[in-house]
From TrEMBL:
NCBIfam families per the UniProt record, alphabetical: phageshock_pspC (TIGR02978)
UniProt key word Membrane: yes
Membrane topology (UniProt): Single-pass membrane protein
Keywords: Cell membrane, Membrane, Transmembrane, Transmembrane helix
Protein name listed in UniProt: Envelope stress response membrane protein PspC
InterPro entries: Phageshock_PspC, Phageshock_PspC_N, PspC
Organism from which the protein derives: Pseudaeromonas sharmana
Amino acid sequence: MSQRMYRDPSRGALAGVCTGLADYFGVEVWVIRLGVATGLIFATLLTVLLYLIAWGMLPKRDELAGAEPLPTMKQHGWQKGVSPAQALTLASERLAELELRVQRIERCVTSKAYRIRRDLKGL
């Protein structure tokens, strides 16, 4: 769940209001869009008015500073996040990267040059 409410025009269909709300509440975008579509059917004027107000008042995502959070795994179909298979793939890729880093560190620490530098520092 995002800390700030915003709109994300780069991922949105019209102005990015639904995308920003979905990020804020931690649900998939289609859930918010379904609510907006239902609102358009039963309360057209109110829904359009609220959408336009949100469009005007919510800041764009690119205007906000901050890094993209790590993806979370879905527990239900309507939640935002990655599927368990995608999460496993991402974890495997990250572990492979970390394994290479550990191998490089081990090579450095067990080298003769490292031991000589350590011994010279100890003098």
